[in-house]
Amino acid sequence: ANMSHEIRTPLNAIVGFAKLMGEAETEEEKQQFIDIIDTNSSLLLQLIGDILDISKIEAGTLEFHFRPMNLNDLCRSEYEMHKGRTNPGVKLVFDERIENVEIVCDQNRLAQVISNLINNASKFTTEGEIRFGFDLREGRVEFFVEDTGTGIPVSYTHLTLPTLGLAISKTIVEKLNGTIGVESELGKGTRFHFSIPVVQCDVQCEPAPADMGALKGGVSWTLLVGEDSDISFKLIEAMLSARFRLVRARSGAEAAELFRSERPDAVLVDTRLPVMDGFEVTRRIRESA
């Protein structure tokens, strides 16, 4: 029931405001509808990701990939992503207490926990602020997300919380050998906090990947797209055609053949292609690269 409610809420907003787009009387009103659709699309996409992760947790296949990372850069990225999603009158603050902290961790999973906690705070905070950040204490990193929202009933403060995001966050933190907790007061706000061991970054952190849209010797990058759905390809084309020369394959076999003839700089392939699935295509491409 909770999952159904969480899916329907952003989906109703997307469908409803998409239908209202044609009736918008001003450009300002149209932009407002677009912003609502964009925000709820991101929430729905994250929810679907959470559902897939729940399946992985139940199957024991939730994966972690550790590499050097910068915590400050991660938090700044989360701030930029969430600052436009809070309710009107609510300020999001990254409380940067320590500069340039580098550790070894799974950056995506860590970002997932912070993002889930900020999203949760946003749901229940209609005025004031949401503040997040981290401290270093005795070989551990302690993260916090605190808000001035409605607070959580006492029956839920032991993390028996009825949301997918929080359940997944608890699992991720525990898989990182960490602990997570919450303190809350009804009508005053909530403070989530989690702590993980510090694994120091004793090597140079990985550089940011090169801009794939940049020119290479005066020629745009070529991207091979394996996609049998016309709608999905149209979306990819709308988003990437200005930065890439796109080559499309409608089946896995065609994708493998085009890789040999086109020698693209990058490949984006659907996992469920006809004739040959994306995993087999990837295997053959790696063998021939």
Notes on the structure:
This protein has helices at 2-20, 27-59, 71-82, 107-123, 164-175, 230-240, 252-262, 278-288; strands at residues 67-70, 90-95, 102-105, 128-137, 140-147, 179-185, 189-197, 215-216, 219-226, 244-249, 266-269. The protein starts with a helix and ends with a helix. Helix 7 runs parallel beside helix 8 (278-288). The strands form three sheets. Strands 2-4-5-7-6 form a five-stranded mixed beta sheet, covered by helices on one side. It has 289 residues and is α/β, with parallel strands linked by helices. Residues 201-208 have low confidence and may be disordered. Strand 8 and strand 9 (219-226) form a beta hairpin. The radius of gyration is 22 Å and the shape is globular.
Secondary-structure-based class equals alpha/beta
Give the fraction of residues assigned to helices. Answer: 40-55%
The 3D shape can be described as: globular
> Into which percentage range does the β-strand content fall?
15-25%
Low-confidence stretches: 201-208
Oligomer: single chain
What strand line-up does the widest sheet have? Answer: 2-4-5-7-6
Mean pLDDT: 86
Q: Terminal Cα separation, in Å?
A: 48 Å
Total helices: the number is: 8
Fold topology:
Elements: H1 2-20, H2 27-59, E1 67-70, H3 71-82, E2 90-95, E3 102-105, H4 107-123, E4 128-137, E5 140-147, H5 164-175, E6 179-185, E7 189-197, E8 215-216, E9 219-226, H6 230-240, E10 244-249, H7 252-262, E11 266-269, H8 278-288
Parallel strand pairs: 2-4, 9-10, 9-11
Antiparallel strand pairs: 1-3, 4-5, 5-7, 6-7, 8-9
Helix pairs in contact: 1-2, 2-5, 3-4, 4-5, 7-8
